[in-house]
From TrEMBL:
InterPro entries: ABC_SsuA_sub-bd, NrtA/CpmA_ABC-bd_dom. SUPFAM superfamilies: Periplasmic binding protein-like II. It is found in: Cell inner membrane; Periplasm. This is Aliphatic sulfonate ABC transporter substrate-binding protein.
Length: 382
């Protein structure tokens, strides 16, 4: 938060210099804190417990009084957005209160999960893989899917007309090692171009840029395009960018995981009934989204406004929402592929992902609803 603007006039009294020095130190501290916040993973991690529907006093009593849920105020986390806005999670949780935290980036959400600040989270595949491998398989489990798609390579059409024109250009991704960063590096490697994974320097310059800054970077010409999730991709299109590639087109069956549901292993062991209730809410929410796409889109936008302060314009919201598929299947086979892509890019040593999934609670919920079970691609709980 910026410091308040005050008069520059200083009275001529003995302690004026000390006051000026104190003010300067205070401003420096505020500025430094702001810079750290802007640069850190999860620069906006706010407790939004008041935004969740109140627990039902007459609801069923589950094993936990509270469940702490983390997610992003992004359309790719639409299941969380819609389920919270429509009260579909709270309906299943009964007297168990929901408390929420909103994150900007996956690593901060993983840190929060490890610290016990959240119990369950909606998150991209790369942070989930990193969190699992760094903890040697002890921190989390992926317990369900949430979304596929919603990622595009958008470019300045005056500078880039074909894929071959990417060479020598500056292409943004949201963050070093995040899911879109891995996807771009893997794609460029497949074209035979060399890029240093850490610095982003090479035949194509990969510029790590916060999604909130990317539109301004595009307008200023400091980047020539971006491999980004929605709604950032559609926002760039409103600024004159063109879609060069939809990431769906590089995946078999045009499906790849963009958002999963994770849980801390401790919470899963201690409160399996609460985990099942959240998953039941997630399944119900995905069904609601499919049956009521316009109402769901409006609900997601309302939750984004509540969490981020601003709703999305229709010119951004409509195409972005249409490109995302909401589903219960975690698309486990594509998670392994994304891990392999990170290895190819030089961002990750060959990970051991055996046991990263526990889909038993989800498959129990799906069976209750007469739906087929989903598979863990051999990476499930033993």
């Amino acid at each position: 938060m910026a410091p308040s603007t005050e008069s520059t006039h200083t009275p001529n009294r003995p302690n004026a210099g000390r006051i000026r020095r104190a003010a300067a130190v205070t401003a420096a501290v505020i500025t430094a804190a702001g810079l750290l916040s802007a640069c850190s993973y999860g620069s906006k991690s706010t407790d939004k417990a008041s935004a969740a529907p109140a627990a039902s006093a007459g609801g069923a009593k589950l094993s936990a009084d509270t469940v702490k849920i983390g997610y992003f105020a992004n359309l790719t986390h639409g299941t969380a957005l819609v389920g919270l806005q429509q009260g579909l999670f709270q309906k299943e949780l009964g007297a168990t209160q929901i408390k929420t935290q909103v994150f900007n980036a996956g690593p901060a959400e993983i840190e929060a999960l490890n610290a016990g600040s959240i119990d369950i989270g909606w998150i991209g595949p790369s942070p989930a893989i990193n969190g699992y491998t760094k903890s040697e398989g002890k921190s989390l489990k992926i317990i369900g899917g949430s979304a596929s798609g919603g990622v595009k390579l958008v470019v300045n059409p005056d500078k880039i007309k074909t894929v071959d024109d990417l060479k020598g250009k500056k292409i943004a991704t949201p963050q070093l090692g995040n899911t879109q960063d891995v996807a771009l590096l893997n794609y460029l490697a497949g074209k035979g171009w060399k890029v240093d994974a850490q610095s982003g320097a090479g035949d194509v310059s990969v510029v790590r840029t916060d999604n909130k800054v990317t539109p301004d970077a595009y307008k200023s010409g400091s980047i020539d395009g971006a491999w980004v999730p929605e709604p950032t991709a559609s926002k760039l299109v409103t600024l004159g960018a063109k879609v060069l590639l939809n990431e769906k087109d590089v995946w078999p069956d045009k499906k790849f995981v963009i958002t999963n549901i994770i849980v801390s292993q401790k919470f899963l062991t201690e409160h399996p009934d609460v985990v099942e209730a959240v998953l039941r809410g997630s399944v119900n929410t995905n069904a609601f989204i499919k049956a009521n796409p316009d109402q769901a889109k409006a609900a997601a936008n309302a939750q984004i406004k509540a969490d981020a302060g601003n709703a999305l314009d229709a010119a951004v919201l409509d195409p972005a929402w249409a490109d995302i598929d909401f589903l219960d299947d975690p698309l486990a086979g594509t998670l392994q592929a994304e891990a392999d892509h990170a290895v190819t890019a030089g961002l990750l040593k060959k990970p051991t992902l055996a046991g990263i999934y526990d889909l038993n609670p989800l498959n129990k919920v799906l069976k209750e609803k007469g739906q087929p079970a989903v598979a863990d691609a051999g990476l499930g709980a033993k």
